[in-house]
Amino acid sequence: MLRIGSIGGVDVLVSTSWFLVAALISFLVSPRIEAAEPGLGVWKYVAGAVFAVVLYSSILLHEASHALMARRYGYPVSSITLHFLGGMTAVEGEARRPRHEFLIAVVGPLTSLAVGGAALALWFVYHEGLLGMAIVGLAVSNLLIGVLNLIPGLPLDGGRLLKSAVWKATGNVHRGTIVAGWGGRLTAVAVIAWPLVLVLGFSARPNLIDYLLVFVMAMFLWTGATAAMSHARLRQRLPSLVARPLARRTLTVPEDLPLAEAVRRAQEVDAGSIVTVTSGGTPMGIVNEAAVLATPEERRPWLATSMVARRIEDGLTLSADLAGEELVVAISRRPAEEYLLVEDDGTIHGVLTTADVDRAFREAGH
């Protein structure tokens, strides 16, 4: 990725695949440039590359409108990326309301249609030579981008509009994503069938590049829609993840207590975890179960419990009330095997292990 600047504090990145598509655009439009301005020689490819930059600048406007609308509603935007098939705006987190989803999605196609309309109006004023060709190309491409992005299927903007509509009607965001995902899959099938429609219905003969572009677009739509549907199904299972009932009963022991005695006390009260504390009761470490099992029993009476405990660092103390997506985000932010769960007043509720979270998540899918 190459960073080329920022818009409103959002990094603008260009993938290496963009240079490939820029070269492809330069090659494909070179015959038209030659017809509009004969005698350019190799400069016609330079003019084609300039047109590719102008075209992707309009795509950047499309993506920037998504980013600015998302930030207006308080959603962080990490980056805007220009790539082979257009652009992508990385908005962090899911929309909180159907209205937000709708507005963040619709502003992109509207921007493309506005740019296309403005270029079309300019073409009526000036439509001669190389500049006229560039203007009409910009108009047609942006109008096409705007219309195609309104097709109701993920990962297109139109899919997000369909998602917001189903979400609003049913009150279920995951159902909206599934419906819009199927729309994306049907769109992918339609794209694959398009060359056949041209051959049978219009007696046209698509070339190799046409078939290649159709295949790439169909794969992009199918994989994007499938990923969105899978993500929605996973998110449907998140509400069943609640930290409090997953916590293991915890025994607190002094840091210098022999490990053998700590294990004996834990077994006596049927505790599933051990936390070392200072003389004042401040939690210091979570005893690692694997480390205890790896310690020979003959060594345990002579080993301080703190020697097999992981120090409780920032991010390893979580609220016992965490649930769903908030719980998953907290765990992913600071990966570890165990976390200390505390109440609002700071008292220890128990220890949460990622193994128990993973097990609960798998069981929720059955």
Automatic annotation (TrEMBL):
- What is the membrane topology listed in the Swiss-Prot or TrEMBL record? Multi-pass membrane protein
- Compartment(s) where it occurs, according to its Swiss-Prot or TrEMBL record: Cell membrane
Keyword Transmembrane helix found: yes
* GO-annotated biological processes: proteolysis
Which key words tag this protein in UniProt?
A: CBS domain, Cell membrane, Hydrolase, Membrane, Metal-binding, Metalloprotease, Protease, Repeat, Transmembrane, Transmembrane helix, Zinc
Q: Which cofactor does it need?
A: Zn(2+)
Q: Name one GO molecular function term.
A: metallopeptidase activity
- Residue ranges of domain Peptidase M50 in the record: 51-124, 136-173
Q: Any binding details for the cofactor?
A: Binds 1 zinc ion per subunit.
Q: Which residues bind Zn(2+)?
A: 62, 66, 157
Q: Which residues cross the membrane?
A: 12-30, 42-61, 73-91, 103-126, 132-156, 177-202, 208-229
What Pfam families does the record tag this protein with? Peptidase_M50
Active site annotation, chain numbering = 63
Query: Hey, what's the signal peptide range on this chain?
Result: none
**Superkingdom of the organism of origin:** Bacteria
Q: Name one GO cellular component term.
A: plasma membrane
Q: Could you say which protein family the record assigns here?
A: Belongs to the peptidase M50B family.
Q: What is this protein called?
A: Zinc metalloprotease
Record organism: uncultured Nocardioides sp
